[in-house]
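Second opinion, please. Please look over this fold, written as tokens:

===
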Amino acid sequence: MRIVVKVGTSTLAYPTGCLDIRHVEILVKTLSDLQNAGNQIVLVSSGAIGMGVGRLGLKSRPEDMPTKQAAASVGQCELMYIYDKLFGEYNHAVGQILLTGEDFSHANRKENFENTIHRLIELGVIPIVNENDTIATDEISVGENDTLAAMVACSVDADLLVLLSDIDGLYTKDPHKCPDARLIPFVKEITDEIRQLADGKGSELGTGGMATKINAAQIVMEHGVDMVIANGARPRKLYNIVEGEMVGTRFLGR
């Protein structure tokens, strides 16, 4: 299987912006093992700005564009150093790809990106994709990595997209407020009712939320790709997801 895994800032870092070492080590070990089993893994990783916030000692995620881009610049270095080191321990090479919205809207740039990522996959390299927050502005940004992951999954003709977040999946109600909220195991179609279940809020250091995940599901389902929303606090559940077991919420594209 060709699997795109998107990991959110809440999985990679503590609210302080410092690295959650335990989660990242388990995530990398699991992805490496899935690659060893013959799967082709593409990792879409948030976390550059969040980790830059921690590295720079800022009290919160910056609001102004220059500071946000500066935090991304510092955080992206740390993020790739960690991935390179940890994946290297399992004999896997990684390659960094940074994208903006323009890379998808311009035919030549989109073709160059697709040629590069397909070649990396053929060479057995694990591509690590992130939005290029150091130069992206509102006019050229994808906006958040849920949508970016969906666009990447379609570009590489993935079999499966997995969004690892800070929630178990899509619920009938807000599980933080309603004890009777039930997890929805399968979604066959993105309806108005499904969209109304998303509140659009993300973590303090991140930019996504359930609304962006529903939009991502719409993109990949139209392309014939399954998508799963699952809790990033349990990266080993990726084994169960790949085997088709019921974990989180699966959006059926195939």
Notes: Residues 33 and 48 are 25 Å apart (CA to CA). The radius of gyration is 17 Å. The first helix runs from residue 9 to 12.
